[in-house]
Amino acid sequence: MDFKQQYQDKLITAKQAAAMVKDGDWVEMGWCVLFPVEFDKELAKRVDELHDVNIRSGVVPLKSQVVEADPNGDHFTYHTWHASGVERGYVNNNKGTFFIPMRYSEVPRYIREYSNKLNIALMQVSPMDKHGNFNFGLSTSHTWAMFEAADKIILEVNENVPVALGGYQNYINIKDVDYIYESNHDMLTLPKASFGEEELRVASHVVDLLHDGDCLQIGIGGLPNAIGSEIAKSDLKDLGVHSEMYVDAFVEMSKVGNITGKKKNRDIGRQTYTFAAGSQELYDFIDHNEELMAAPVDYVNDFKVISSIDNFVSINTAMQVDLWGQISSETVGTRHISGAGGALDFILGAYQSKGGRSIVALSSSRLDKEGNRISNIVPTFAAGTQATAVRSNTHYIATEQGIKNMKGLTTWQATEALIDLAHPDNRDELIKEAEKLGIWRNSNK
């Protein structure tokens, strides 16, 4: 089979690809850093001639030209599976952008069974190899499912996309592709999130709970970076990785020798993940690295898979925790922040693991513009705040004030533990509110 000839037969331009979109179409535009940048630019140029075009994507770290061209949603409706900082702004301020509530592990099934008819699916991929395959391992995620469901499959081939190996459903062959166009722009990168002393104090409590041979899942941001940095400075050894997102913190830990995966009882020796985003250093580390394993999200985030891995430790962050032990990482009131993502998958799976621990970490408080200290541990959630995990799901909660195991606690014991984790400036007010709620005992002070 002449793969090169097939490639040439299917080669078009980004403009021609965008010209295939029709009124009423549903278009899936990849995930995270493999968002098809050139197609986005060309489709935006057609804003005045198209109507009722629905787009899905998620965790996109740049401004979408389609959304920017149509802020009122008169022509395009943009949907995000999980909001990046940019998409958060669109959801909260743009009339044509909406969030899709989901548990990340279920997205492939949503696409196959429950979503609207998918007319076009496209994303960035690495250049074709000698076997006619294009790799999309940086965003294995739900890509196989979206390609299965689409009438047309279009690839944006970028020579700068690293080849992420080791797993399955992380490539597509030229014979299964309808059209290809080339665009060799720089990879989309994320700056390494900064962290300070407060995040390091939270991290120290988390690291104290870890043991040699634990298998880790951590997220992205200043707090997870601080945790990764503290692990890299520790003498922990033979750690494993099974994480929905592969981030720079894992690279740091790998390079100093904390991670070997030798103690994993599943995917032994492999660092398993479903998508990756971060610095160019991270992409260089991933490229053709057989130690890593890019797999679809309905495997990586399946809580049955997670729970089958001994000594699994999930480390997730939250926006707020209420005195009942509920966790929210999605909204503050009606203001959208990110999404449920895989938090619940890992909270449930880690606790069910033999020797497993589920940790939710957050700063106890924040300062508003006037310098007032606002507690992130609240009596009850404000109206509209979505609970990502309910109180019966919660295992460990960590702040810079300490770490507490919430399992088995009564409501008043949980309240006492959480107030201990709150900033000292906020504790007296929290006690007053707990008394009003009937979850504070007079003997506690």
Uncertain parts: none
Helix count, DSSP H or I runs of 4 or more residues: 16
Shape: globular
Strand arrangement, largest sheet? 13-12-11-10-14-19-23-24
In angstroms, what is the radius of gyration?
23 Å
Structural class: alpha/beta
- The CA-CA distance between the termini, in Å, is 77 Å
Largest sheet: 8 strands, mixed
Mean pLDDT: 94
Percentage of β-strand residues: 15-25%
Helix content class = 25-40%
**How many strand segments?**
24
General description of the model:
The structure is a single chain. The protein has helices at 3-10, 14-18, 37-44, 65-69, 85-93, 107-114, 143-149, 197-207, 222-233, 248-256, 280-286, 297-300, 303-307, 343-352, 411-421, 424-437; strands at 26-28, 53-57, 76-80, 97-99, 118-125, 133-135, 150-157, 171-173, 179-182, 215-218, 240-246, 271-276, 292-294, 312-317, 320-322, 327-328, 331-332, 335-336, 357-361, 365-367, 373-375, 377-378, 396-399, 402-405. The protein is α/β, with parallel strands linked by helices and 445 residues long. The strands form six sheets. It has an eight-stranded mixed beta sheet with strand order 13-12-11-10-14-19-23-24, sandwiched between helices. It has a seven-stranded parallel beta sheet with strand order 4-3-2-1-5-7-9. A three-stranded mixed beta sheet has the order 16-15-22, covered by helices on one side. The longest helix is centred in the last third of the chain and has 14 residues, at 424-437. The termini are far apart. The mean pLDDT is 94.
